[in-house]
Amino acid sequence: MLEEDGAAEQGSSSDDGGESDSDAEEGTSIADTAAARVVNSTCAPGCSEHGVCNEELGRCDCPRHFVGPDCQTPNPEISDVCAKYGFTLSQCRSPSPCFNSCNGRGRCVAGICHCLPGFWGMDCALSRGADGGVQLLEGQGYVPRKDSIKVYVYELPPNVTSWFNIKRLDRPLHMLFWQRLMSAGLRTVNGDEADYYFIPLNTRTLMAPEQAAWVLPYIRKTWPFWDRDQGHRHLIIHTGDLGLHELPLVMRRQMNETLSNITWLTHWGIHTYHPIGTWFPAHRPGKDIVIPVMITTPGFQLSPLNPAVAAKAAKRGRPYKREQTFFFAGRICGDRKPPDPITHECAPKRTDYSAGVRQRVYFHHHNRTGYKVLTGTSKYMQEITSHKFCLAPTGGGHGKRQVLVALMGCIPVTITDGVYQPFEPELPWADFSVPVPEADIPRLHEILEDLPPSQVEQMQSRLHCAAQHMFYSSSLGAIIGEDGRYDAFETIIEILRVRKAHPDTPPEQYVEVDERFRKFANCELGGPDPKTLCAQGTDRQHPDMPTCAECHRQVSARRSGSSFFSWAGGLVCCSELDLAKCPRVWE
Question: Annotated region Disordered: where (predicted)?
Fold first, then answer.
């Protein structure tokens, strides 16, 4: 038997009494209205017993345990299916978080939303309106954001969306983006008015190639939007180390035109062939977007950029001082072994790792006064807050150090030829980082010493703004007292907005041709509003800013989990259960 989680559907009773009578009456009314509009369902009879009818397409979406056109047949291959999607058989039947906690329009059953009749979608967000058209978040008063872009999201079959074990998904950024499109008021269900089309494909899985090869033709066959411009306004998020190049070469050759027309949002900004890393260009400036890695490591709210942390340090009479020069701690050699203690070189194995950057920085600078280049340290946070500059190299592909060190207020030193950093060249990285050509690694110390103190101070002051662009705070909670208006999600949206407004402008000129984008890039459009976003950690970052734990405790009985995935709309919604009513900083 499949097990449900503890979140009650809207319109049903809850054992803990967390739902008021008025809420139940409203939910029942909405459910009855939605069900009445689909008396003559477009799906096979009996679909809703185990599955969910996508009334728009007449497609009966089955959970993992059932198959068939009406989801009435027990899946004879359930053990293999569960293993394929990251579960043991017992885990596959156990409670698991559901996307947006089904928006109160269905039951969360083993991590999959079993929507009430008349509702469909991965999170039960869709239904038929009174005019017969598709409606988003019926009963919540969803209103599109003004003066921004509109994004259509393809509701794909559950075997490519909701069947996965969310607890084991690595970098589920496509879910975060999908979720925030709704709470930010940017999602449209009218494909004819959309500026962009989002394909919510999980690319961080071994099944990604076969699913992509199936999904893209399926989209062309099912919806009319791709063929209108051959997919040029379609978006896919790929979070793999090497971006698009993680897809098999044979597939890329066979589907070259289709894959090339898509705009890829990836972490890998390689735009020029690199002979040491043997990396081929995978990023096309002006077409693709380099996006930051989704950082979920706890503890970054202890950053000196957090006003509460800085105030406490000053009150103790020990304000943060960056008296040391340069820091890096982490893997140095490609074979994961430490450098030779005599030659200070790595073994001649995996010399392509980090394009040789980490190895060369260690060789030339590990013994230099004021420099710490280590294979590891138990005092990482202490070290990173006591140095002015921090190495932000690549690894086996894209890196994440540029995000980590920026969040901690350490000026990133980026060294890898031909690789763009997150939101580069749209954002002027030279304003808050030190890019160093690989050929200049031996004289890195001279480059840093030659920087005037006033320039270093200016770069440090700009990091508070730059760090906001690097973190998905509206989904994950504040870490430096921000309210999410300049976060990574909103930066993606701003870049897409500028592209729509100035389609022929090179990305490095966005700050010159679009005044709003210039102000956005410099965090000059107001904020923060401490009442908008909850804070990570146990302490408030502003007196009026609740912690995310405080928010969750108020409504935990009506959510299917405590992570952003099940928190309808992301953590910007705090204790608000109606996704459409979440705070919107730009309205």
Answer: 1-28
